[in-house]
Recover the amino acids of this structure.
């Protein structure tokens, strides 16, 4: 039966390619969609809401026609966010970015250590002429996307925004590190990029460097391979402000953690600043070394919560003004009431509504908003999703959601997978087969057994152990479940 369904999905892909043409299929379907047919519904997995909206707006008829042709019957189609595709797309984007930065780092290393003897730069092109043979310390990159002027401030993020403004106004007031954490799409990256852009605009004398955890890791590996650690350390440590985004990426990489710890100590020891962002509190990243965790929690740790209704409405008004469209206030409030998970989804729904209005040549009204967003609101009616649970559990154990979808049976992966399945079954409306399909197309008995194992462990008040980058960890299973439930549901009603 499974092979038959798998064959149906492949046939639908082939039929879609014939209808939309090879170029459209190569761009929009081959890397960006995953079909899953079950219970009379064809689920079209997409990496994010923007791609999903485009495919639904432009190729919905093609998908319906292809599915009906293969199955010889009308088929209901639903569009869902697939975390595996999201991770794959993000990884490809970051790898491209890391390759570009790695090439720039190599060029910088050649300039810095090529014997030019042109003196060290202070970040804005002014050398001090000390003749030590160092080239540019930090090549200030192009303007980043996020700006503090565009950041909508509410009760959920006021402290984080205030800390960012304070750093820009006086970068050298103290050397206290700043650690910002939140769920996906709530503004961490926007704040870090806003700090970088504001420093460029108002403090050109300040040497800063913005980099993601994956970029830092890739450049470190490149430096090790090419024996250019001195150039790597010169680049990252001789700065006034280091901005590290997506820090959770280095949580399960022992050598990278150790290098970053030395980088952190070098910058902090020179009374300079380190600003970091992550999906989780330092203590929630179990694979983070104890020494690094202690240094992070000794600084300023700030959480960004989900925006409240007024803030969500203000975000929509700001985006509407930027797009120069007219959107009535009742439509703004309707979207703000319905979409409460994160800012990206909020903005994505607005983009979809405006695109729908443009395609149908209609004015934006409340009835049109209900019509355009009906499918999306139906699919996201439950605030807590399997994707949320997977991401949270994976981050805690220093893994990725893709790790949970594999057949690996190491103690850490097995425990994380069982815990995620237990939480998904307990806190979502998905059935055992649906959870199994979502988490790597597994058999439903895999989920059933996972839930039984967790249930038995909870009844016995068992203790579980797993391997992390910081060594073997252990905790009561009951406490582990409570920790994840507490963080998953914290302020979920905001």
């Amino acid at each position: 039966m499974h092979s038959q369904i798998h064959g149906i999905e492949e046939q639908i892909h082939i039929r879609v390619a014939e209808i939309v043409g090879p170029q459209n299929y190569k761009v929009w379907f081959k890397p960006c969609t995953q079909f899953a047919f079950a219970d009379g519904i064809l689920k079209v997995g997409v990496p994010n809401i923007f791609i999903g909206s485009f495919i639904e707006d432009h190729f919905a008829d093609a998908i319906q026609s292809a599915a009906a042709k293969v199955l010889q019957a009308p088929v209901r189609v639903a569009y869902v966010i697939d975390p595996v595709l999201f991770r794959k797309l993000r990884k490809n984007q970051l790898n491209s970015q890391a390759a570009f930065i790695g090439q720039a780092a190599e060029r910088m290393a050649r300039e810095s250590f090529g014997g030019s003897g042109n003196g060290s730069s202070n970040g804005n092109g002014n050398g001090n002429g000390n003749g030590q043979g160092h080239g540019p310390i930090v090549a200030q990159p192009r303007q980043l996307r996020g700006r503090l002027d565009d950041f909508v401030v509410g009760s959920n993020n006021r402290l984080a925004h205030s800390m960012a403004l304070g750093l820009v106004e006086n970068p050298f007031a103290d050397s206290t590190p700043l650690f910002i954490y939140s769920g996906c799409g709530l503004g961490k990256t926007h704040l870090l990029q806003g700090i970088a852009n504001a420093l460029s605009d108002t403090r050109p004398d300040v040497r800063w460097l913005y980099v993601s955890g994956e970029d830092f890791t890739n450049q470190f590996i490149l430096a090790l391979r090419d024996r250019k650690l001195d150039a790597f350390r010169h680049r990252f440590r001789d700065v006034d402000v280091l901005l590290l985004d997506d820090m959770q990426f280095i949580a399960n990489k022992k050598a990278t953690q150790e290098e970053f710890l030395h980088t952190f100590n070098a910058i902090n020891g020179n009374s300079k600043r380190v600003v970091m962002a992550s999906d989780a509190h330092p203590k929630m990243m179990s694979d983070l070394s104890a020494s690094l965790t202690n240094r992070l929690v000794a600084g300023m740790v700030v959480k960004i919560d989900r925006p409240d209704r007024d803030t969500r409405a203000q975000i929509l008004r700001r985006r509407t003004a930027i797009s120069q469209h007219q959107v009535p206030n009742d439509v703004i409030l309707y979207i703000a009431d319905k979409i409460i998970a994160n800012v990206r989804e909020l903005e994505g729904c607005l983009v979809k509504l405006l695109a729908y209005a443009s395609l149908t040549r209609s004015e934006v009204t409340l009835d049109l908003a209900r019509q355009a967003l009906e499918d999306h609101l139906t699919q996201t009616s439950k605030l807590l999703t399997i994707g949320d649970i997977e991401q949270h559990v994976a981050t805690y154990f220093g893994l990725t959601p893709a790790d949970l979808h594999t057949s690996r049976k190491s103690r850490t992966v097995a425990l994380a997978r069982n815990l995620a399945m237990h939480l998904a079954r307990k806190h979502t409306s998905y059935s055992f087969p649906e959870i199994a399909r979502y988490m790597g197309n597994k058999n439903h008995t895999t989920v059933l057994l996972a839930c039984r194992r967790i249930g038995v462990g909870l009844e016995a008040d068992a203790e579980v152990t797993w391997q992390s980058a910081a060594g073997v960890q252990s905790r009561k299973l009951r406490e582990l479940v409570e920790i994840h439930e507490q963080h998953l549901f914290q302020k979920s009603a905001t």
Notes: The chain is about 55% helix and 10% strand. The beta strands are 34-38, 41-46, 76-81, 178-181, 208-212, 241-245, 273-278, 300-303, 463-468, 471-476.
